[in-house]
Amino acid sequence: MAKQSVSFVERHVEKIVLGVAGAVFVVFAVLFWFGAPNSTTSLATEPVAPAHVGTELVTLARSTYDAIGRAVPDAASVALPDATKRRPSEIDVALTQRWALAPTPPHRRPPTVDALPPDMVQLATILPPGKPAIVQGRHRATLPVPNPLPGDATVGDRPSRDPLAPTSKDLTWVTVAVPVSHAAQREAFRAAAYHPAQARLVLTRVGLQRQQLQTDGAWTEPEAVPTFVTYDVPDIRRVRLVQGQQGWAVEPASEKQVRSLLDGITRPAVQTAIWRPPLAPYLDASEWTPPDVEGVDWRSWTTDSAEPGSAYERSGAAEAAPEAPAAPAEAAELSDRDKRRQAREALRDGEKALDDGDLVRAKTMLETVTASLLSASEISRLERAKAKLDEQQAKLDEPRGEMTEADKGVEDAGPVGQTDVEPVWASDCTVRPGVTYRYRVRLEAYHPYVGQPDEFEKPTDAEPVVLTSDWSVWSEPVMVRPDVYFFFTRATESDGSVSVEIFKWAEGMWHVKRGKYEVGHRIRYDDKVLGVIDTQMTVMEIEFGVRRSVRVKARRGDAFTIEEQNVNVLVLADTDGRVHERTDAEDSRSDERAALREEMKQAEASQKVRATPAKPAQETGA
Question: At a CB cut-off of 8 Å and minimum separation 6, what does 412 contact?
Answer without folding.
Answer: none
